[in-house]
Amino acid sequence: MKTGKDRVKPDKPGKPDRQDKPDKQGKRDKGERDHVPVLSDLEPEQASPEDCIFCRIVAGELPSRQVYADDHAVAFLDINAWHRGHTLVIPRRHVVDLVAGEPSLPEIAPAVDAVARMLNERLAPDGMNILSSAGRVAGQTVFHAHVHVIPRYADQPGFTHLVNPVEVPDGELDSVWRQISAAP
Ligand code: 5GP
Ligand code: ZN
Fold first, then answer.
1. pLDDT tens string for the chain (184 positions)?
2. Which residues are part of the catalytic machinery?
């Protein structure tokens, strides 16, 4: 189940969103689109499965600190953990986000549940966030659907401390990975 250490850093931001820009008075150019933007308008640069980091992790072509796998989902530690034990649960098949294409949330829900309970049991955090971002505007940076399962600790409480962009040394990721993976 364990496949080794992560080495791949997150994608750099891609092309800017394709949106009509207002002028200085807040008016829009002639020809502006007047429909409500949909995800396909906002992310024209989706990765194909061939060059998708998460598909390559699923295929075992790239290493990850895997903590769980079933027929539909794989879970591994986030390489830039916001908090100790930050885990990503992803569908095995390539789907851009949880609201694109054929529904993927139902097939990964059991994995999300299992991972959240496992992290609770093994790491004994004080709380947990479970979230998923769909679309660049919502903060998504990797365009293969994923659910963040984020254990939370009393010394950094609340939503204001949720995103903690501190680079985590490999040794710390290895240490929490060992703790999660240890036989009960
Ligand atoms: P998003 O910003 O799309 O909601 O979350 C993507 C997450 O994937 C980020 O938290 C980022 O740190 C993580 N990530 C990006 N590339 C890799 C990788 O190669 N390995 C692992 N384990 N996590 C990654
Ligand atoms: Zn993919």
1. 434 444 333 333 333 333 333 333 333 343 334 444 444 444 444 567 788 999 999 999 999 999 999 999 999 999 999 999 999 999 999 999 999 999 999 999 999 999 999 999 999 999 999 999 999 999 999 999 999 999 999 999 999 999 988 899 999 999 999 999 997 6
2. 146
CA of 115 to the centre of ligand 2 (A): 20
pTM of the model: 0.79
> Is the domain defined by 39-179 classed in CATH 3.30.428.10?
yes
Sheet (strand 87-91) strand order? 66-69, 73-77, 87-91, 147-152, 127-131
Kindly identify the ligand whose nearest atom is closest to the C-alpha of 49.
2
What DSSP designation does 148 have?
E
Closest CA to 108 of 93, 90, 124, 120: 90
Measure 67 CA to ligand 2 centroid, in angstroms: 19
Mutation test residue for ligand 1: of 74, 80, 87, 97, the one with most atoms within 8 Å of CB: 80
